[in-house]
Amino acid sequence: MCVAELLVVRASGHLLDSQRQYPEWEMENRDLERLLAEGVGGVILFGGCTTELQERCKTLKSWAKGPLLLCADVEEGVGQRFQGGSWLMPPLAVGKIYKRFPEKAIELAERYGASTGSQARRCGLNWVLAPVCDINSNPKNPVINMRAWGEDPVQVAVLISAFIRGISSQGVLTCAKHFPGHGDSLVDSHLELPILSHDLKRLEEEELLPFKAAIASGIDSVMSGHVLLPKIDPNYPATLSSTILNILRHKIGFDGVLVTDALIMNAISNSFGSCEAAVMAFAAGADLLLMPKDPDEAIRAICEALMNGLLPMKRLEEALIRKRKVVAKIEAFDLTIGERLDNNQSHQIEFDIDRNLAKELICNSIETHNYVASGVNKGGINLLRVDGVLPCPFLNTLSPALCLPERAGYQPIICHKHGINPWREDLNEPLALDIFGEGSFFLQLFIRGNPFQGGLKHQEPWPEVISQLQRHNRLSGLVVYGSPYLWDELIKVLDPSIPSAYSPGQMPDAQKHALSYFFQLNEKNKDLKNKKVFEFTD
Amino acid sequence: MCVAELLVVRASGHLLDSQRQYPEWEMENRDLERLLAEGVGGVILFGGCTTELQERCKTLKSWAKGPLLLCADVEEGVGQRFQGGSWLMPPLAVGKIYKRFPEKAIELAERYGASTGSQARRCGLNWVLAPVCDINSNPKNPVINMRAWGEDPVQVAVLISAFIRGISSQGVLTCAKHFPGHGDSLVDSHLELPILSHDLKRLEEEELLPFKAAIASGIDSVMSGHVLLPKIDPNYPATLSSTILNILRHKIGFDGVLVTDALIMNAISNSFGSCEAAVMAFAAGADLLLMPKDPDEAIRAICEALMNGLLPMKRLEEALIRKRKVVAKIEAFDLTIGERLDNNQSHQIEFDIDRNLAKELICNSIETHNYVASGVNKGGINLLRVDGVLPCPFLNTLSPALCLPERAGYQPIICHKHGINPWREDLNEPLALDIFGEGSFFLQLFIRGNPFQGGLKHQEPWPEVISQLQRHNRLSGLVVYGSPYLWDELIKVLDPSIPSAYSPGQMPDAQKHALSYFFQLNEKNKDLKNKKVFEFTD
Hints:
The structure is a homodimer.
Chain A: E1 7-12, H1 29-37, E2 42-46, H2 50-63, E3 69-72, H3 91-100, H4 102-123, E4 127-128, H5 153-168, E5 175-179, H6 200-205, H7 208-216, E6 221-224, H8 242-251, E7 257-259, H9 266-269, H10 274-284, E8 289-290, H11 295-308, H12 313-335, H13 337-341, H14 352-363, E9 367-369, E10 380-385, H15 400-407, E11 410-415, E12 440-447, H16 462-471, E13 475-482, H17 484-493, E14 500-503, H18 508-515
Parallel strand pairs in A: 1-2, 1-8, 2-3, 3-4, 5-6, 6-7, 10-11, 10-12, 12-13, 13-14
Antiparallel strand pairs in A: 9-14
């Protein structure tokens, strides 16, 4: 059945049903096998490690009736989602480098794409859902934020073009998202529908530039965003709006694959039924439907609409043609690039070329103030603030953020949403100091715009905590991992004599590098000592 | 070099160096590949999932010069260490069933062995480091505890014999541990050396019975324990004591493989150098050396001692003969049992036969008091006490222990060693109620004797907390997951009107089953409704 070809369903990257992390969203293998045999054309994968992903992709291909699109949201390197791949500094870090070293940033963006592409390919994926083409014009954006390549349209256009050059060289398909731009939103579309006041003129001047650049660079697909632009279409969010999708088709002239963002996201499912959303998106001009809530129902509903004449048959034809065109491109890749890349059947995913890129990004993204050559050595409380610990992908008992301060006498205490509330309702004394005991605080804040966190972080009064701890003479150091906007806020109130650091990334290597300015590294960590090799200066 | 054959080195179950969870203990692949090529005879694996383990075992075999022993500490099912396998109730749960239904418990123990054996084999392992033959005669034992099959010598002997029958039927080697008995210790040998006051008479009457039964049941190997018995050998712990190991060889007459417990454990490494320990254990009568700190150094030291005549060459000969005998047994297994078991090349590890065993163990181990048909429905604080959260193997945001109470209005708060201290120094009011806010407490305590935890839990005043909460009329329910000894203590002070449950296991399915007595399950969890099928009654 041709309609099935247009669905991209969600599956766990783990092989076994019992390992699924989100059983509500990830089908059982029995259903997955059946749907693939019936012709479903794509799978989006979440979770697991690269070894599992390699086996998983092989299995899924063996179940599929025809060629299969295998994609993942690996915007920040394969390691962002699959352990064993490289976990790179978020794109906004490259955006920050661009402001001082544009040439260098462009080179890094291209290598970022190449590294992500070759690792994705080695895992068995053939379609990377990146680059994010949104311009993070709103610092309070709870869902794009660090995922964007910058706050300026031209900068984003230049960097995503370099990324696309890199990734395309490795024989995987690309995806520009989230059309017509999700960077100015104040709410998370995983939780509710963002409303943007932009008119077409504003889009033309800002948001559309990176998408035009992506198309000029040969992007294979564009993903629609779940955002409402009442000045352009007062009724339907972009994903379901032919008016908005027609801008892409007719004004910009994109003739590649148009894929929706996940249809199960609240921004859509709060207001539209599951079948309704699938039919509407398809009618509006989407070619591929990502994560419909119930794939069988979606197929049935679209077939019915085609039979009833509610959907023109022409829509099916053009969607199939576009989809088969990218599939043909993958097959061509396999014949050309594949021959060179795929004969190494090992489980090794990350090579020196990737590690050097990761290091170079780290060494040129982390900022420090009041570097103390002697190290921080008073001892006290190492207060780590994270979103959650069940699990926390960048923290375990051996993480630098715990171990390095511990060796200097700092006892770790982790604050997270399932822990004891550390707050008092007093903006002068927001942190309940009495429940922490004696000692000065070494503060490590892991805060970035993460999907599903609902922007809760903005309610945490960290600037006030800095002032409070300084007043009590109990702040010995500060590291922010994540939001540059929070960092900018905090250094405004930070006493200039207190050592501090900022890292856009939260991964262990970033922790180690940032903390090397505060604490002595032991023998095993000496490799960081040659970090100078990777740094470039004015 | 033959000496290398006698080493069992540690490796991560993950395939990539970057995924190692304990890089201090787990060699890099480069070193591992070299050592296996040089003839190292065994690898013990930790971490990863079953899919990774399958690939890992293939890779390790391809690196090895000769036949390779591949083992793991999967005492509580393969799922205890490797996600994707069955995670069974701990052996002490079967021990508890034995007291009421001895026949049934023996049947369960045999199925426990068969399930663990067949899953281990499917993963590529050929040697399971179980059963624990220690008698948990000391309820305060911080390291054996739930791992033992009971507190009575005859019961342990009977159950481990059944386990061995089960596991041996699946074509994997077995290991009885920790000779001459680690069940009466008060300290954890991972942290320091336990001292036992037993003389030979006491050993003969108690501790040795299960080992004799294991040998009569055809056990393939025995592991020595790091325990000091001054009445038998005042100088050396069992692992390094020829006097004690000779009891096994000459008094009991065991002629199979004698393997040490991990030589890097503090009980040994606090007092003996790394090479010294390896040479001494070998001289004392051990055939295989588990996890020497530096394998190259251990090989060199043993070779030197053999050359110098400090170690008789006869020791090397007999160790090699014994080791090659079990290797031959594996090869015979591969030809007979293997043909039947191994032709299924899938990644599936757990089958209905395993799931039914896991369910039957759960349904017959969980105790409840004051079962409330209407459920607990007041709402309040769901206080979960766990050892640690970085990570917590049985808890994530979708675990029943979080979700089921949450649906009934209980907000989860997790207490763990890296969290804010919940304690006051007042044994009447030990829990700092003011920092938890309003509402009644639904208390879930995940406490069992876990290695490396140092018996810390004994310092937590949970009986006093129960009294405190009851006095304040703020206790709405109690579940203990783990230690039956803690449970016994707590029900003594628990108000009989308060609903409570006890589960020996901590895994999600045990949580779901225990909580089904308190909270309504939703549609997806209805499979538990047929739990009656799995229960047997007097």
